[in-house]
Amino acid sequence: MNVVRPSDGLLPASGTISLIELLAARSKPIETEHLLRDLSVITPISWSRARNTVTKLATYGVIQSVGTTKVVVGVPKTAAWRVVIARKVALELANSLTKANAWSCLRRELTTGAITIDSMMLPPMLDGLGMWVTDFGIADRTSIAARYWTVALEHSGIFLSGASDANKSLPRRAKSAERLATELAQQAADGAAAEEWVVDFERHRLRGHPFREQVRRVSTDDVAAGYDVLSFTSPTSLQHDLFIEVKSHGSIKLFHWSRNEIATAREFGEAYALYLVDRSRCTETGYIPHIIKGPSPEMFILPESGWQVEATSYEHIALSGS
Q1: CA 115, 119, 122: angle at the middle one, nearest 5?
Q2: pLDDT averaged over the chain?
Q3: Residue 66: CA count within 13 A, CB half-sphere
Q4: What is the CATH number of domain 6-73?
Q5: C-beta atoms surrounding 299 within 10 Å
């Protein structure tokens, strides 16, 4: 849970305002060390936290560095510093939600319309940002350990706008129709290339066979055959007795086995074979694909098989009385 404590490294609101007021009381830039010394006199805080706060305010443009050692107020004298800081804090929090894709931490209350933040879903805020979110009134919490923070009305627009913009982007797993079509076309091309390679592989294996040229692809003529290549089990076979389903894969040995292909494998038994072809190795001399003779779904789910099976389709079979 993102419980934010003062030890996060930055001053609470009162200390920050005191620091700016000290700086504003001087008409000229002041040495940072002198500013921190004066601040330590009026507030019981450590120099390290005060120094971190100076750095934070500088990134917000509320104060400016002069040279390498001095600082000066960086906002107009007429500006309300607390308002300026609060807006900067709100914008930084919104930016962190965008970077972490964490906009799901927001909720809108149905009865009041208020925007709430689930602090358990916030990205890490190690620089003390969380403390400033509550100290400067961007969001309110009922206690230091409260999970849900209510966003102040004047800052709600920043978060509603950020959430709206996030919805305009596609989710990380989404695919456009064009991208999907490209991927499917590439898969088809890879599959066809692997089948042609298997035809050549089989003809080489069967060199001397009188019918070796009859090793051929059938997928070009019958996509529902349940296998891709017709071949012979040995040089002594004179009729096609090897039905090969070709699966092209990359660095991970992953393939899809359809219901029709499984049914064909059961029908042909040992005459059916899966040829798993690593497309990155097809040009290697002497490369032999992973060949599985007489495969069945059951052999892949055995603990010692070394395979992991994921379901891809489900069929509901109506039971009596249902």
Answers
A1: 100
A2: 85
A3: 12
A4: 1.10.10
A5: 11
